[in-house]
Structure formats: C-alpha cells, structure tokens
Amino acid sequence: MQHPAVPDLSHTHTRPIHWVATATAVAAVVALSSVLQPDAATAAQSADKAAAAKSAPAHVTPPDPAGVAFPLECGPVKAVVQKKASGDLDGDGRPETVAVVHCDAPMGTPPDGVYVVTRGHDGGKPRVVATLVDPGERRTATELSVRAGAVRATLLGYSSPDVPSCCPDVTDDVKWRWKNGAFVSDTPSQARTV
C-alpha cells in the first residue's frame, strides 16, 4: 500500500456538522438579502424624487364593471358585460371604465347600453355615472376603445323602425369626450348604410 505524499488532514473530511454550518450560513444570507433590499432604480436624481412623487399620481386600478347594477331592464335574465375599456376620461388621474352591456337573451341580438363606470375618491364600490348609449336606441356596439381621454365606439343601428332586428342597416362611428361636467359627442353623425 502506498501512502499519500500529503499527510492525513482531519479537517479535509466533511462531517454532518460541516453541512449544518453551511446550510445555516446560506439561510442567513438569503434571509438577510430579503430584508435588506436596495431602493428601486429610477432615472431621477435624489433631489427630484420628492417633486416626482408629488406630480405623479399613484397607479389606480380601473373599476371592474362585473358587480355594478346597470340601469337595464332584463326581466328574468341577467345583464352581461360584453366589452369594456378603461382610461382617465375626466383628467382627475383616476381611470374610469366604459362598459358595453346587454341582457343575456337566449335568442337574437339584444340592444346594447354603453355606460361609464367610476369609483369615488374613497375607492368605494364602482357605480354608473353616465349612459352614453341607451338600450332603447336599439344599437349594438361592435368596437369600443378609450384613447387620449376619448371614448370611441362603432355602433350598428337601424334607419327606420321597419328594419328587422336581425339586420341593422346603419353603421355609426362615434366619439365622446368629457366637457364641462358631461360627456359630449365630438363626432357629428357619420352614419353610413351597411
């Protein structure tokens, strides 16, 4: 048997206590790193942080129209939110949600209502604050968006009461903006036949 050139060093053999000590050290480093986090990176200088915090509104989640009671008579069926879009419509730094809603009818195409949903400054329950399209107008919204503070929609409708409900024959692209405390249609009627 040949002996190694290096003498037997007892400290080079791992024992269970070495593994326990290593695991404890790693756990301490992980725990300490989760407590001591650096500040978030920003492009602003430290002197500008206070000014940036005052001028930038806090991120606010748009109101969810799912639990809102819409002014829509649906009888035994429920109201269904068909489309929704969100954005700050009145310039207060908090988003509103525009919802296209109709009754969940088992047959046919029920008319849509287009509603603006918001929540108060206290962050309370969402509520309807404006009706942009009343279901009584017999319109169907095929497109809906919120861009640059304006609500845009493409509406299908009827040129007369004699047109059957199955076959809308008028398409209208409309846009609403918040002006002087109300939503006003910016777009003159551009109705065109389908």
Q: Would you mind describing this structure in some detail?
A:
It is built from two helices and nine strands. The model is unreliable at 40-56 and 190-194 (pLDDT under 50). The strands form two sheets. Strands 5, 6, 7, 8 and 9 form a five-stranded antiparallel beta sheet that branches. It is elongated. The chain is an alpha+beta fold and 194 residues long. It has helices spanning 16-35, 46-55; strands at residues 79-87, 96-103, 113-118, 127-133, 140-147, 150-157, 170-179, 182-185, 192-193.
Q: What's the short story on this structure?
A:
It is built from two helices and nine strands. The protein has about 190 residues and is of the alpha+beta class.
